[in-house]
Every structure is written in structure tokens, then in C-alpha cells.
Automatic annotation (TrEMBL):
It is found in: Cell membrane. This is ABC transporter permease. It comes from the Bacteria. InterPro entries: ABC_transp_permease, LivM-like. One of its GO terms (molecular function) is branched-chain amino acid transmembrane transporter activity. It is a multi-pass membrane protein. Its main location: membrane. GO terms for cellular component: plasma membrane. Keywords: Cell membrane, Membrane, Transmembrane, Transmembrane helix. The chain crosses the membrane at residues 39-59, 66-84, 90-108, 115-135, 162-182, 208-229, 249-273, 285-304. It comes from Pandoraea faecigallinarum.
């Protein structure tokens, strides 16, 4: 009897169920720190999922994706600084600004490929990083405290549990919508363009428009993650836009598995939990963490999500071998 359990579906779904139970466990164990830790995991999973749309499916290596994370965070911080706590205004401004910036930067960067695309996205992110540093009125290099969280009617994201469940709902929506999107004609064109852009254009598909649309969608979703992150930390900083933050997002996607959507969820969870564990052991945790990432990529170049597939194949073969001997 062939093994019917699909590990690549069962494990991520189990992880989502466990993430949904975190607030209940935090209340029961009287450990509010868990809400902050796993809230950070959920928020960065949203950002990593948004990056996977263009990196994993479109082959667009954006080394400046944290730009949109920072824009979403600064929208909340600056508006809160001026006494505007309306969450709908925060959300609308975040989506609009990220769409405009994503559209402009995308039009310029998507006309190139390879290292040129990487450098252009990095350059734009660094431009906004130094812009944030120069905004002395909003804290400059020291950052800006968020005095009031986003308020959606009677619901406010100042409550850690409310913020967690809102972020969790956004993550589930992003995973579901992302999978539907890449399975549709839009996703097929994006994937086809990654394989052979010239052939897709010869077939009559305006691949630049499709890639630009994917880039803008990715930017907007990452901006929402930044908005949630500002509410989580009650603080915004130019560090949110730094190239190191973009690098962390890429590591999450690669570690979890490119082109899967469940992969970034696994990657962000594994990376941030291991990071927190190592920080508790030594202040030189990065010396240990770096080789761990290298080893994980060498073990399975398709990331943790691919590793689950390899494990399922091995278990299926072993099951058939045992049944054959019986």
C-alpha cells in the first residue's frame, strides 16, 4: 500500500495550526514573550512569501525588498507621530506608496537581468535607507517610537493578541492567494518567463507587464508586513530598509525552499527560532548560524520544503520495499 501522507502539505499545515495556538499557550503559560517572538515569525513569513512570488516563481533576485518593509513601517510611525492612528488610512497609504515606488523601481530594474537587476534594487533600497537616516524630525538614525498603534474601528493593533491574529490571518490569506495566483494564467506566464523570456514574448505574452505586476503585488504585500511589524515593535528604524534586512529575507526564502509559498513559512520559522536559541547560548551566535545555513542548503538545494519531499520519497520507497518482501 503506497504511502498517502503528503509531508509537504501536512507539515506546513501542522505548523500553521501550531502558530494559531500560540496566543492560547502564551496566556496559559503566562509567557507574553511568545506572542512577540512568534508574531515576528508570522510578520517576516508574510514578507518572505511576498519575496518568493518574484524570486522563487519569477527568478527576480531583489536585493532591496526590505525597502517595502521599511516603507510600511515608516507610514505607521510618521502618521502616528502626527496623531493619525486610523488603521484604514495606514493601510491605504502603505498600499499606495508601495505600489507607486514598486511601479517606478520595477519599470527601471526589470529592463535588466542578472547582476544588474540585483544592483539596481539594492541601490533603490539604499537610497531610501539614507533618506530615512536624514529625516531628523522622525528620529533619523536613532529611529522613531510608535506612540499609537493602527486602529480599525473598535479593533486596535496595540493589543498583542489582536495583532498576532490579524498578522496570522494575513499570512494565511497570502499563502492561499499566492498559490491560486501562480496556478492561474498569470503565474504560468511568470514561470514561463523565468525559464525562457524570449520564447514567451514570441508567443505573444507581454512579459514585462506581467513581471511588473508581480513586482508591484510583491511590494504591496511586503509593505503590509512592514505596517504590522511597526505595530509589533512599537518602533521604526532605518535598519528596516538596510541591505542586511533584504539579505535576511532572501535567506528565509532559500532556506525554506524557492517557489513554494509554504517554503518561506518554514524558512522564516526555522531561521528566527534557531537565531533566538543561539542568542541565548552565546553572543557570537552568527558564527554558528552561518555554517548551519550553508549545511542546510547543501543537504537540500530545494530548502526545507524540498527536504520534506525527499523524505516522503524515501519513506514511500521503504514502504513499497517492505510490502514487496511480505
Amino acid at each position: 500500500m503506497e504511502m498517502k501522507l503528503n509531508l509537504r502539505t501536512a507539515v506546513p499545515i501542522l505548523l500553521l495550526v501550531l502558530l494559531a495556538l500560540v496566543p492560547l499557550y502564551a496566556t496559559f503559560a503566562q509567557q507574553p514573550f511568545f506572542l512577540t517572538l512568534f508574531g515576528r515569525i508570522v510578520v517576516f513569513a508574510i514578507a518572505a512569501v511576498s519575496l518568493d512570488l518574484i524570486l522563487g516563481y519569477g527568478g527576480m533576485v531583489s536585493f532591496g525588498h526590505a525597502l517595502y518593509l521599511g516603507l510600511g513601517a515608516y507610514i505607521v510611525g510618521i502618521m502616528s507621530f502626527h496623531g493619525i492612528d486610523n488603521g484604514f488610512v495606514h493601510l491605504g497609504a502603505t498600499l499606495l506608496l508601495c505600489a507607486v515606488v514598486g511601479g517606478i523601481t520595477g519599470l527601471l530594474s526589470l529592463r535588466t537581468t542578472g547582476i544588474a537587476f540585483i544592483m539596481i534594487t539594492l541601490a533603490f533600497a539604499q537610497m531610501f535607507y539614507f533618506l530615512a537616516v536624514s529625516l531628523k524630525q522622525y528620529g533619523g538614525d536613532d529611529g522613531l517610537p510608535v506612540s499609537a498603534g493602527s486602529r480599525f474601528g473598535s479593533v486596535t493593533l496595540d493589543d498583542p493578541a489582536v495583532l498576532y491574529y490579524v498578522a496570522f490571518a494575513v499570512l494565511c490569506l497570502c499563502v492561499w492567494a499566492g498559490r491560486r495566483l501562480v496556478e492561474a494564467r498569470f503565474g504560468m506566464v511568470i514561470r514561463g518567463s523565468r525559464q525562457n523570456d524570449r520564447r514567451m514574448r514570441a508567443l505573444g505574452y507581454p512579459t514585462l507587464r506581467y513581471k511588473l505586476a508581480a513586482y508591484v503585488i510583491s511590494a504591496m504585500v511586503c509593505g503590509v508586513a512592514g505596517m504590522l511589524y511597526a505595530n509589533l515593535t512599537h518602533f521604526v528604524s532605518p535598519a528596516y530598509l538596510a541591505w542586511t534586512a533584504s539579505g535576511e529575507l532572501i535567506v528565509m526564502v532559500v532556506l525554506g525552499g524557492l517557489g513554494s509559498f509554504f517554503g518561506p513559512l518554514l524558512g522564516s520559522t526555522a531561521m528566527l527560532l534557531i537565531e533566538e536559541w543561539l542568542k541565548g547560548m552565546t553572543e557570537h551566535w552568527m558564527i554558528i548560524f552561518g555554517p548551519l545555513v550553508v549545511v542546510s542548503v547543501l543537504v537540500s538545494r530545494r530548502g526545507l520544503y524540498g527536504l520534506l519531499g525527499d523524505l516522503q520519497v524515501r519513506l514511500s520507497r521503504r514502504t513499497r520495499a517492505v510490502e514487496g518482501k511480505a
